[in-house]
């Protein structure tokens, strides 16, 4: 069995996927790299096959009809043979020295029969045009160099969340919790992280700046104008996360608090994008989203609606919406949103 499976979802990724793959090859035979060609119409399939032929013990090329980012991750999980599982998007990459530290930590955990459900590391916003790169670190909230549980964590700051870039899951946990991401839907990375969390018991934190999250392509799904065009998909993911939460069943208070915070930021992003679009139709969708939350989980509704962020994004009238957007812009600068 491989130590780590890394899936690289690829759709028309010919211009940048090589850099991503090359950054992962130093993992050697401890790692399997699953390149999922999700119905690309450029040279992605050929590049994937070339790497699989050149590194047959490390790289596997998987070709499928276009199903979107989520279905590419699903394919990776279905085909993974590694003890642990990581998603690296094709326009991102990993830091080599941090990578070696991650591999070493996974080996030590495996050798000592200390299997954990989730490994967390830091990630770097590689944002074009910025002088200083923001790093999402967790050393203020997570114990280092030890296996720990939710009971051992401290309170996360505003803007500090466990994202796809920072998480490695135990592969069997993903299978056992029945994770299945929706097809043809953007922003499913939130679901990928969120859904398994309530099944996680044992955690390990490696304090290295491992994942490099590139922001800057004009066609990137996280660009605000594109997110507004795809707002229905953002709302779909938002609602699926709310359905998935089942907060009344979460007994651990620290995990319960974290899940609410995570839902809060996703809901704030949805609401602000609906406000930013400026259309009557989208303002109606914002009201419908809050009504949906209220009907689904009244306690969650009160936690989100009447918290600091909830109050800011629900100020009445045009002037209130301007204040909401202003607060959001400040938060972009503080926490590194796009």
CATH topological fold name of the largest domain: Spore Coat Polysaccharide Biosynthesis Protein SpsA, Chain A
Structurally, how many domains make up the residues?
Answer: 2
Query: What fraction of the residues are assigned to beta strands by DSSP?
Result: 15-25%
Number of strands: 9
What is the averaged pLDDT score? 89
CATH architecture name of the largest domain = Alpha-Beta Complex
List low-confidence stretches: 330-338
Tell me, what is the CATH class of the largest domain? Alpha Beta
| N- and C-termini, Cα separation | 38 Å
Quaternary state reads: single chain
Q: What pattern of helices and strands is seen along the backbone?
A: EHEHEHEEHEEEHHEHHHHHHH
Query: Could you say which overall geometry the principal axes of the C-alpha atoms support?
Result: globular
Number of helices: 13
Largest sheet: 9 strands, mixed
CATH superfamily of the largest domain: Spore Coat Polysaccharide Biosynthesis Protein SpsA, Chain A
Structural class: alpha/beta
Q: Which value, in Å, is the CA radius of gyration? A: 20 Å
Residues in helix, %:
40-55%
Task: Walk me through the structure.
The protein has 338 residues and is an alpha/beta fold. It has 2 domains: 2-215, Spore Coat Polysaccharide Biosynthesis Protein SpsA, Chain A, CATH 3.90.550; 224-335, no CATH class. Helices cover 46% and strands 18% of the residues. It has 13 helices and 9 strands. The protein has helices at residues 17-24, 44-54, 68-79, 96-111, 171-176, 189-194, 224-229, 231-245, 253-277, 280-296, 298-305, 308-312, 317-335; strands at 2-10, 31-38, 59-64, 82-87, 93-94, 118-127, 135-136, 167-170, 203-215. Strands 1, 2, 3, 4, 5, 6, 7, 8 and 9 form a 9-stranded mixed beta sheet that branches. α8 packs antiparallel against α9 (253-277), α8 (231-245) runs parallel beside α10 (280-296) and α10 crosses α11. The radius of gyration is 20 Å and the shape is globular. The protein starts with a strand and ends with a helix. The model is unreliable at 330-338 (pLDDT under 50).
């Amino acid at each position: 069995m491989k130590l780590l499976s890394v899936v690289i979802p690829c759709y028309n990724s010919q211009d940048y996927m090589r850099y991503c793959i090359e950054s992962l090859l130093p993992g050697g035979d401890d790692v399997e790299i699953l390149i999922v060609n999700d119905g690309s119409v450029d040279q992605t399939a050929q590049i994937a096959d070339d790497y699989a032929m050149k590194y047959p013990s490390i790289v596997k090329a998987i070709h499928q009809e276009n199903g979107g980012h989520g279905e590419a991750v699903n394919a990776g999980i279905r085909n993974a043979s590694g003890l642990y599982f990581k998603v690296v998007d094709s326009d991102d990459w990993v830091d080599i020295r941090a990578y070696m530290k991650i591999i070493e930590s996974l080996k030590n955990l495996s050798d000592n029969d200390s299997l954990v459900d989730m490994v967390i590391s830091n990630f770097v916003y590689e944002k074009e045009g910025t002088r200083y790169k923001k790093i999402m670190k967790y050393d203020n909230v997570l114990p280092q160099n030890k296996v720990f549980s939710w009971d051992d964590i401290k309170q996360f700051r505003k803007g500090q969340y466990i994202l796809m870039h920072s998480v490695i899951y135990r592969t069997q946990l993903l299978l056992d919790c029945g994770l299945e991401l929706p097809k043809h839907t953007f922003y499913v990375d939130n679901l990928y992280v969120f859904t398994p969390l309530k099944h996680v018991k044992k955690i390990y934190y490696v304090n290295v700046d491992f994942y490099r999250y590139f922001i800057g392509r004009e066609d990137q799904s996280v660009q605000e104008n594109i997110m507004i065009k795809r707002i229905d998909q953002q709302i779909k993911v938002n609602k699926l996360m709310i359905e998935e939460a089942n907060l009344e069943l979460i007994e651990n208070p620290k995990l319960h608090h974290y899940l609410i915070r995570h839902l809060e930021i996703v809901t704030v992003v949805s609401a602000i994008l609906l406000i930013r679009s400026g259309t009557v139709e989208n303002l109606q969708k914002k009201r419908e989203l809050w009504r949906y939350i209220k009907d689904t989980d009244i306690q969650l509704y009160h936690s989100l609606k009447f918290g600091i962020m909830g109050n800011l994004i629900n100020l009445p009238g045009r002037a209130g919406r301007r204040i909401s957007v202003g607060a959001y812009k400040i938060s972009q600068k503080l926490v590194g949103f796009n």
